């Protein structure tokens, strides 16, 4: 996968720090104070720390200041109730730049 320059939205701290670089500013979003605190603790001293940040917010109601060109969410199929998935997809659409794509890896059934 080739990533272009822009802003990305990722869950959890490990992915945020691993992907962030001067060309790719990454936002880590979580609803948990504890998760945000831990992510900051683990990553604030990394050399690329100026290339990402962590926000505590509810994904369903959060209003970002700008749209994202890439959104990675690998919790979709396991953490979101089936009756909430349409709202999730609509929310992704609302905060994703037109013509860009969300990534939501799912396990492949046997």
From TrEMBL:
Q: Which PROSITE patterns match?
A: SAM_MT_TPMT
Q: Which residues form a coiled coil?
A: none
Provide one Gene Ontology biological process annotation.
methylation
Q: Which InterPro entries does the entry link to? A: SAM-dependent_MTases_sf (IPR029063), TPMT (IPR008854)
Q: Which keywords label this protein? A: Methyltransferase, Phosphoprotein, S-adenosyl-L-methionine, Transferase
A Gene Ontology MF term for this entry?
S-adenosylmethionine-dependent methyltransferase activity
A Pfam family = TPMT
Which superkingdom heads the taxonomic lineage of this protein's source? Eukaryota
SUPFAM superfamilies in alphabetical order: S-adenosyl-L-methionine-dependent methyltransferases (SSF53335)
Q: What is this protein called?
A: Methyltransferase domain-containing protein
